[in-house]
Structure formats: C-alpha cells, structure tokens
Design brief:
With about 120 residues, the protein is of the alpha/beta class. The protein has 3 helices and 8 strands, in the order βββββαβαβαβ. The chain has a 5-stranded mixed sheet with strand order 5-4-8-6-7, sandwiched between helices. The protein has a 3-stranded antiparallel sheet with strand order 1-2-3, with helices on one face. Strand 4 and strand 5 form a beta hairpin.
C-alpha cells in the first residue's frame, strides 16, 4: 500500500512492506520518527514501554506537541504510568494501530506539526 501526502520537511513514511514501514530509502519493522530523522526500533511489549524506550523522541528540541504511538496491528492502550510520565513533560500521547499512525504521521507533518512517532511492527 502506498501512503500519499503533501510535502513536508523530514522523513516520509511512503508505505508498508511486510511487517514494516518504508521511510525514504529504508524499511523499518519498528520505527522511531521525528521531523528530523527516522530510526529502526526494537520495542518492548507495550505493557512494558517506558520513557527510557522513547528517549530519542523525548530529546527532540523543541519538545514534540505529542507522541503518535502505533501499537501494531490493533490498538492497545499504553500504561497509565507512561501517559502520566509524558503528561508531566507536557507531551500528550495518541495511541492507534500502526497503520493508522503511519497515515496520521503524513497528514500531521503535511500540516508542519512538530510531533514524534513510535510505531510497533505490523503483525
């Protein structure tokens, strides 16, 4: 499947490949993405996800408006502790399945929103 969007600066999620995401010239099964860069990611089980697992995204300067959390094939809510920890930093979290998160990334970046994304592999 191709994901089409208007142009914006930074990495572009161009579509899906197997369990992963096509971003510019690479394919990533797990993905950490910011307006500045995209990196492969081997995430823990969602119930064990902590701020430390998201450190590269939380170091973004300025801080992201919110974090798009793609939770794999289906929506899984992150722990309340993680939501509180990000909230204490002034960063909201929007959880959705990873395909929806990839599409939302394109729409929001086309609007030049300063966001970050952590996308679990597609299962």
């Amino acid at each position: 499947m191709e994901v089409k969007r208007a142009s914006a600066e930074g990495p572009v999620i161009a579509g899906f490949s197997g369990r992963g995401f096509r971003v510019d010239e690479g394919v990533y099964e797990g993905l950490l993405i910011t307006p500045e860069r995209a990196d492969g990611w081997t995430p823990p089980p969602i119930a064990e996800l902590t701020e430390a697992d998201l450190a590269p995204l939380l170091a973004l300067d300025p801080k992201p408006e919110f974090l798009l959390l793609g939770t794999g094939a289906t929506l899984v809510r992150p722990s309340a502790a993680l939501s509180r920890a990000l909230g204490a930093r002034g960063i909201g979290i929007e959880a959705m399945d990873s395909r929806a998160a990839a599409r939302a990334w394109g729409v929001l970046r086309a609007e030049l929103r300063w966001i970050a994304g952590a996308l679990y592999p597609l299962d």
